[in-house]
Predict the 3D structure of the following.
Amino acid sequence: MGSTLNGLMNIAINSVNNNQVALNVVSNNISNMNTEGYTRQTVDFAAIPGYRIFDWCASNGKVTPGQGAEITGISTKRSEWLDNYFRDQNADAGYYDQIGGMLNNMENLLNDELSSNGLSKLFNDFFAASEALSGDPTNKAYKIAFVNAAQNVADALNNMSSTIKNYMNTAIGTFGDADSFEASLINTNVDSLDSKLEQLADLNNQIAQNPSSNALIDQRNMLLDDISSMVPITTTTNENGTVNVLIDGQTVVKGGEKRLTIQAVQSDDPDNPVKIQLLDEEGNVKKDDISDSLGNCSITAILQAGKGDSFGYQSILDDLDKLASAFAQEMNKIQTQADANGTPLYIGPDGTLTESTTPFFVTKDGSADFTAGNIQINQALIDDPTLVATARIDTTNPDYEPEAVGNASNMVLFNELGKGKIAGLNISDPPGEGMSITDYLSSLVSKIGSGVDSIKSAGDAQDAVLQQAQSQRDELYGVDLNEELADLIKYQRAYEASARVFTVANELMQTIMQMI
């Protein structure tokens, strides 16, 4: 009863207890000011309704004194809009973070294998060997050097193809190989995503049973942030404090129930080797492939790195395959095919010119199409470099002399591969009039470098946007030491004043008891 000394003492005791709780909350805030994902907590107070009593001093004989204050809860301030905005930006940032590994691989490829010390140098060495052989087509040592230089180019293309395929295998597995897919980055990441969604449903269940647990809510919000970097999500909040999560418009988690499973599977289409599926609780396919509708996220980055059409491992491999094919076909054409200028000839064992029928390059797998992975020098040329066709003469000409071993007309054609345009060789499509090997290599280096720089610039810009969104959240959710110190003083003074009220009421009670 607030109008009595006992009531006064009860109000004071409640106030002491209330301010003690408030001081504990302030202390907890300060302790967690550097804890990742922690949201600042505040104490919610409410006045305890009063009751009417008779008072001779009141004009109407009745007054309604209060009964003090009570704590109605310990709350946190969060903005659903700000969380959703942050998670949207987090998905984009997750894309660039994930693709950063691909950039490192591309830069290594650019700096180590395509630079002036890599494939470009090997092609320059090849053309230098070709020039040397042009000056002395009968020199066997020059022929050996010419064949070795061509083999070095083929070996470099093989190694680069193998390296890129290993990158692709790491990202999405080898097409048709279940074991490599099982260990691939895309499969492990999607499995991890599905596991996080399971954890989210479990946290929702715990929050439904204990809705006042701010620690559980903070844990769930951190998990939602983590999930949002892997895949774009839409969230809605239920009346009991739980959240629903939608992916591609499908409700994957509804409160404490995980309704759909997300999984990565290998397809039977080499142009689209991986599908991201949504399955219902019975294992039936709800959506067969959502990969094209995910937008920017880490899952998309892995898929693009593994099999991207614009800029990724596959596009670089396609460019290398184009180079290997054009180089091999032109070399074989010069080595074995006659044209208006004559027939390609090599110096035979008897020292006379003989028609060349031995192709310079063959495929390792016996296929008709050359790639960076299957191009190899013809073993016959390795065993006998004299088979290199150095001369090109019209053998039907009456003046044709089989002993004209000093003729180097065919070597001129080999030399021109460096600067002459090759039909079908171009970085862009359609190929147009083609490019020289030297220009093609330069364009390829420029393409990779430009692609890397472009993605890095976009990633830096996205990081800045995400940092701004994070700063906005920190300002609203984070612990400000100045605010906590101000609250600390406020609650301390209130605690001392409440204790003083209790002391005064107790002294008055003692005085009354002494009077009695």
